[in-house]
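2024-03-11 09:14:02 INFO receiving multi-entity request
2024-03-11 09:14:02 INFO entity count = three
2024-03-11 09:14:03 INFO echoing inputs for audit
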Amino acid sequence: MRRESVTPMLLILPAMAYLIVFIGYPIVGTFQLAFSGSKGWLENFIYVFSSKDFQNAFFNTLILGATVIPIQFILAIIFALLINKKWKGYKVLLYIIATPLALSDVTAALISYSIFAPNGYLNKILLNLNWIERPLYFFGYMFKSREFLVVALTEIWRATPLVFVILLAGLQSINAEYLEAADVFGFSAWKKFIKITLPLLKPSIVSALLVRTLFAFQIFGVVWLLAGRDITVLAGETYYWYVFRNNRNIASTYALIIAILTFIVGWFYIGTIRSKHLEEGVRT
Amino acid sequence: MAKVVVEGVKKYFGNVKALDGIDISIEEGLFVVLLGPSGCGKTTLMRCISGLEKVTDGKIFFDDEDVSNVPPKDRNVAMVFQSYAVWPHMKVRENIAYPLKLKRVPKEEIEERVKWVSDLLHITELLDRFPSQLSGGQRQRVAVARAIVHRPKVLLMDEPLSNLDALLRVKMRSELKKLHEQVRVTTLYVTHDQTEAMTMGDKIAIMNAGKIIQFGTPEEIYKKPKTIFVAGFVGSPQMNFLTMKVVSYDNEFFAENFGLKIPLKADPKMGSIIMGIRPEHIYLEKSSNSLPIMSTVYFAEKLMSETVLHLSIAADKNIVAKIPYDLSVQEGQKIQIHIDLNWIHLFNPSTEERIEL
Amino acid sequence: MKKFFYVLTFVAVSLWLLGPLFFIFLASLTPSSDFYSMNKIFPSRLTLEHIYKLLVNLGGWRAMLVSIQVALVAIAVSFALGIPAGYALTRYIFRGKNMIKLVMLFTRSVPLVVIAVSLVTMYLRLNLADTMFGVALAHGAMVLPFVVLITSSIFSGVFVEYEEAGMIFGLSRFGAFLRITMPLALPGLAASAIFAFIMSWNEVFASSVLAITNRTLPAHILGTAMASPDYFKFAAGTIMAVPALIFIFLIRKYLISMWGISLK
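2024-03-11 09:21:47 INFO inference complete, emitting structure
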């Protein structure tokens, strides 16, 4: 590595300038929009915080995260341990598990709709098996809890691979000799997992958890397509207020609330990353 | 080919001093080894000469031209890297020819020179392969071929043998030396391996902490090490150092300790003195100019070609002696050993510099 | 017994992850009469009619072109700016380096949801509102931190000695970068470009907010799908999924490391 100060700064400057213009400046703009109103600078926040929609959206966002994330973690850990065994054909399964990573939330929602629609494959199969007599309805204002279930299932399907990838990378970086040492001392498989794998995997688990939490606050496409505003979420409200109500101030207020939540989580996140970087620094 | 002169070169990385005033003059066509422990600045010095690092202070001359601010591509140097750095996306032939192409050497001449160098290094049959299809030793040859084919003024080699296995290293050592005899290019060779340095260098520059401690032929360095550092760094097993008291009887001076009384030719003007003696200059039998000392065998390392004895001569002092393999001794045995006075080295304990007495 | 267990999990996991994809492909190729008949799981014939109609009559083709343009411009912008920065982060030691890495990590975690609405205000002044270019520049900002971090990791995988050898043997520093480092980094860079393409191809929120008439495919679908018959929804899903799946298959070798960097 070369030690210089001018050249690297010149190389980095364009990228930094671009990020300042297209991310930094708009963040300031979001603040401006959120804090401006005819009845004082807190008008939008007072309106948003006192509205039932916000409370619902906030609650729904949290409860969706709280339902989906633990299930994703359990599945992802199981998959990661399975793949990490390196049995014959594990690579194929690895690619299969990774497939949903290519898909957007919009696509995932449409896929899920093909299964759960009134004429969807779930109903068709159940009817043909004579397990039900009339199609089950999963969508519509009347079936909010079923909508919630479908959204959660879709999110689990779409984003478990994401957690899986982070955990697998963590598992693969664990030195096999630690586990072999445990074998020598006669640890059982369960004890090995609890006493060695899990503690060593902790950094990856923390980082996956935080990434998932960040994304949870941004959940939009899946909910919007499958449930519309039957289930309100924070990002959905931003979209709604901008596109349908043409109110940039309220939309920005929602956006800012997401930003603040993201920032709080991101703060913890960067803290853990930093310590991880330090460890890497020691190693090299 | 060129004479290389380095004048007062300093190099700082931030606040870290890597080179602390280097002066060295390397005559044309010489094979010079930079030897030192890791972190002593030898690689930095080489990189400054190549131009990959800019000097913080001081000047570097090739013949009489000041090249301190010339970029590496215009210095007409060549380098063999520790990792060989044979470009993986080019075939061997392109690897060797590319530097010539960059210098706009005519096509026929490039072909001629590639042929010459591949014959010289026995890599003709490898020319159409990619580096990934070569063994470490073959890659090494390609790297050397690439370096010498464009007839550099100075050839730089940065620990080129350290990634080879032991057998190949010995073989390449002699081949590189032979090659140098054929092409006679001024060569600077960085290593931390003293065997490489002693066997290959016309001259060796021993470095420590950013300074050149001694610059001389292998013989000079072995026979007259300038400081305790040099004496301890060169030679295997390491030289023994004994702290002796200086005493005088009737205007004659002696260094005395461990039952030894070594006559000194003059007054060293100091209370104590450090005596160094190499393990190969301690014998089990008396010689023409030796002094005896009693010792207990603590441990014997039988290397088959020779035996290395760890001997205790006092409660808290062990020394090492190298004896022929056919002399057998038992651990715990008390034996008399003989120190060859023709081969003792004396050092000033405070400056650690050599004293000739 | 153990083998049986592995085969069973293999099949179960594969079914769970690939089954839904199979269903939407099937649904998008099913004639509408077969789809609405409840006792037909498998259609009597396959048809491309829905996909064709979606593309040609319902603006899908145009939206797809916008999507591709947006992705290509976003890749061009983010790589043009990101490669020098990524290179600087691996090859130089300088003050503020960790700070810059943190800025990259932070900007990457700023969701477009947060800035999209405010970007519209800026775009109105710059005449970028409702243009392909405006969406592309926003996507460029979304992808750029990722490009900086990943190119930095790719360049650190190319030994600095290769570049130094280039400089010794007659290349300038820039020449060595161009002739030695770039060709060696190319496979990784291509893979990350594909990855960036997928990121842009899949982004829906900013595309929906920043453009009304020049919408990308997902934004177009989001805006119209709710009002369309079911079979168009499935056709839309298929059109969205297929290119992304092909691309991700191309870069499968790099997948884990790339996601590792984009999420770390």
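2024-03-11 09:21:48 INFO post-check: The mean pLDDT of chain B is 91.
2024-03-11 09:21:48 INFO post-check: The CA atoms of residues 205 and 215 of chain B lie 4 Å apart.
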